[in-house]
Amino acid sequence: VQLQASGGGSVQAGGSLRLSCAASGPTFSSYTYAMGWFRQAPGKDREFVAAIKRGGGSTFYADSVKGRFTISRDNAKNMVYLQMGSLKPEDTAVYFCTADQTFHNIVVVTPESRGQGTLVTVSS
What we know:
124 residues, 1 helix, 11 strands, 4% helix
């Protein structure tokens, strides 16, 4: 599975950004793969952000982003999105798109596949 993330950039605190991730590969199907996002700030460990079950039935968020971020997917286009709002400086990190046939692996950040990452910078 190949994952291509895009949409990162620089924004002021309180602003919004939308990340997108395109999934591809001969074995990938939106109905067999859960998808999600994790982030990693400089000098820090990976942090789970959000996950969505295969087909888009259920979502799960880290407490740090709950109520501010929304994950969604377009099954027909093999896309997953992360709408980020009310951004804070502590949201600054490289964001990685992930995919795995097991939802749990998305949440514990041990996914089968991950993209190259897109940088989000939030200034105060």
